[in-house]
User: Which sequence fits this backbone?
DNA sequence: AAATACATCAACCGCCCCCAT
DNA sequence: AATGGGGGCGGTTGATGTATT
């Protein structure tokens, strides 16, 4: 064990910070196992890595979160809670996915659903680290949400009230630029309730359109039915997936989406698209 | 003024996944 | 095929600072 003999723990001193910074300047980021000896630090590799990633690395934003950052954080968290229950299929899957029984029954499933949550949110908040986002959420947002639920006389639930994102059909073409280099995306079959497969004219993905797509994704004021001007098309090929947001979802639900959507709901959704990948920054 | 409770957040811990061997 | 090590993650802690009684 590398931490067994007299390795320093706890808060970092300025001297240690300087040594670590000097090392990274010289040798670059990575290969953490050789950082302590080469930098002259009496710390374990993980401690060094954490200190760099969460504190010393350039461009890390300090200070309190701005309102727009908090807003985006809440929206992303909301989306991820919902998305977590979408990484499901009983059918063929090429990439990573969580079978439904797995989701419903096992503790491990909870971990998988939560996987990468904070880093994904942090990835969309420039300069913020996953640790910062997690801390902020746990200290400010989660507590408030729980107490609100309790004050309202509703059942105490150890999770947030989650507004479900409104129905919004989406069709993705194959070979989107967005998909490139994301091997867990695979062919998907997703049956909308009305069986209407809506295709979009394939057009190149511009960053502006990408932003528009995200705005639509987060818009929970308007109930979708129409496909918006959503030019996320790629090459002239068959759609890789047709997604439809939860049909007639309740305005809000308490706790996990699984509380509200029973097995029949999932039975209707046959998707092996790993939605997590859409959030990859 | 002192004691106590509460809030914050940097850092640690254990686990999991991936990859090289 | 099996396994061991490294990186990366979420959950949690505990030292420190701040508010309340």
Assistant:
């Amino acid at each position: 064990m590398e931490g067994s003999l007299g390795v320093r723990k706890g808060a970092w001193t300025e001297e240690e910070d300087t040594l670590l910074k000097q090392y990274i300047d010289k040798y670059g980021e990575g290969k953490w196992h050789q950082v302590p000896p080469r930098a002259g630090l009496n710390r374990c590799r993980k401690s060094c890595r954490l200190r760099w990633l969460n504190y010393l690395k350039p461009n890390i934003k300090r200070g309190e979160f701005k309102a727009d950052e908090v807003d985006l954080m809440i929206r992303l968290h909301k989306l991820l809670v919902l998305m977590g229950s979408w990484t499901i299929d009983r059918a063929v899957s090429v990439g990573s996915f969580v079978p439904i029984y797995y989701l419903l029954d096992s503790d491990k499933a909870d971990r998988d659903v939560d996987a990468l949550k904070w880093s994904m949110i942090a990835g969309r908040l420039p300069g913020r680290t996953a640790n910062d986002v997690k801390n902020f959420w746990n200290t400010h947002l989660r507590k408030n949400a729980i107490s609100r639920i309790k004050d309202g006389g509703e059942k105490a639930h150890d999770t947030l009230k989650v507004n479900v994102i409104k129905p919004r059909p989406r069709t993705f073409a194959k070979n989107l630029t967005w998909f490139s280099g994301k091997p867990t995306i695979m062919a998907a079959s997703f049956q909308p309730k009305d069986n209407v497969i809506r295709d979009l004219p394939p057009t190149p993905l511009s960053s502006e359109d990408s932003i528009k797509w995200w705005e639509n994704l987060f818009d929970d004021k308007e109930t979708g039915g129409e496909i918006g001007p959503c030019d996320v098309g790629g090459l002239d090929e068959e759609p890789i997936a047709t997604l439809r947001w939860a049909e007639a979802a309740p305005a809000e639900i308490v706790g996990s989406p699984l509380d509200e959507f029973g097995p029949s709901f999932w039975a209707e959704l046959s998707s092996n698209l790993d939605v997590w990948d859409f959030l990859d920054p």
Residues 9-12, 46-47, 50-51, 54-55, 111, 115, 131-132, 135-136, 138-139 of chain A lie near DNA strand B (CB under 10 Å from a C1'). DSSP finds eleven helices and four strands in chain A. The domain at 14-56 of chain A is CATH 1.10.10 (Arc Repressor Mutant, subunit A).
